[in-house]
Amino acid sequence: MFEKLVLKSSPxxxxxxxxxxxxxxxxIFVGPNNSxxxxxxxxxxxxxxxxxxxxxxxxxxxxxCKGVDHSEAKKYLESITRDPKERERVHAGWTPVILRNNxxxxxxxxxxxxxxxxxxxxxxxxxxxxxNKTLNIxxxxxxxxxxxxxKGDLKFPDNSFAKLLTNDNKRKKWRGIIYxxxxxxxxxxxxxxxxxxxxxxxELPPDELSLRESTLDWMRNxxxxxxxxxxxxxxxxxxxxxxxxxxxxxxxxxxxxxLHPSLAQRLGKELAEAARTxxxxxxxSTHSAHFLMGAIQxxxxxxxxxxxxxxxxxTARLLPNDKLKQLMNDPMLRSVGMLSGLFFQNxxxxxxxxxxxxxxxINERLxxxxxxxxxxxxxxxxxxxxxxxxxxxEPLRKLGIAAAGIADLDVISKGGKEWTKQLxxxxxxxxxxxxxxxxxxxxxxxxxxxxPEGNSDPEKYFKTxxxxxxxSGKEKETAESFCNDxxxxxxxxxxxxxxxxWLKNLGVEASKHNWRxxxxxxxxxxxxxxxxxxxxxxxxxxxxxxxxxxxxxxxRKGIPD
Length: 561
What we know:
alpha/beta; Rossmann fold; 6-stranded mixed beta sheet; 2 domains
């Protein structure tokens, strides 16, 4: 089937397109809105239909396919061969076949040639094989997966319902998963005419292949698909196609649609496992960290590709499973929802939850005013304190995500290994770290000396009494330069000292006790009221503007290639 997937974009603006060797497995595309996930799925589907013979792609560069030997090609041809229709003329060297329920004929020699060397005959290979083996599950398809199907000849089942009905092991596995998730049993009803239907019940069904009275009673009293939720339909239908369907390629856009987060996680796990055991190539796009987590935790091979598009530059980066597992296994990182950063263009990491809520509200007001300093597509996360900011920023940066750290000025009070962690997390080159450490020591000494003589805690005084504004002349110039250097690498220090120093004109006491509640009350909640605080050209509005400039700069420093 497939050998390699090649995209046009790479992890950075410059470089060769990302390529990925493919085996039967699940490949998941993640990224912010409008990054091209759904478009890429459509381009893969188009390739499977016609080899992109008539389509100019924007994201997909190519897919290379594996050839098969003559005996395997012959076996597949026999499976799709049909008897000629009455008065149908079949040319010599051609074979009458059924493709996608359409009766047609194909050139037998050309068929064997494309099956043995598909990349040289990709149009025929796609039309005669790939298209027949591909299922594209989009919004409309998802809703119809459990619609009734023809019973046909059960000795030679030719659709997913019939194949699952005649395979006890797969049907029991499918039924067991659905029961674990929804506490109802699905069954395939073969008792009505020439159709097969899906029904549900709280009771375990008797043998579906039997027409004994007990089976008929169960079917009479069972719940029809029209009476179950969209989530049950989507979950059950997708897994039915995985276990009972013939397609080797399954393309699913947002498989988590209609599902509770716990069910999205279970579906991710089941799809990843089934792709491996059923030898399927599954391509999915998702906005769900839970679906992604389930797939990774399955233990099966999962290819995760993060796409971005900022209106000018597109990137594609393969995310390593081992690093993502580390993130999911860390209780602190799980608790702050760090994996959600994969679905945002920009991430801001603050010291605590009050800081997070405040800066997020400032950004919301900038967005409401269409202010150029507003940060688009942003996720705000909070660490426990400034020492744990690098624990969140560093792994996000390694995944190619623009993650900025925001800390009160007293972060510089921790030198040595703690400061090294900050510099390493923000991607400052090792050759510059030593000079920055020395500069930190110098600025910290300046700030301690700025405390009034006799102050009991000079190492904290500057935080609550003006920050670097306590300095003057060359000392202040040095502190400004120190902060500027850090901002180049996405670490932003509150030069006034602390988050409570912003918007002092509102008269809110800089106290840790209920400060967030008080500042939000002072800022107002009704945009139409006179007292509602809107952005101006100073203070925290400009501070967040500096963060915006780094996040949206395609040449920003601190993101590894």
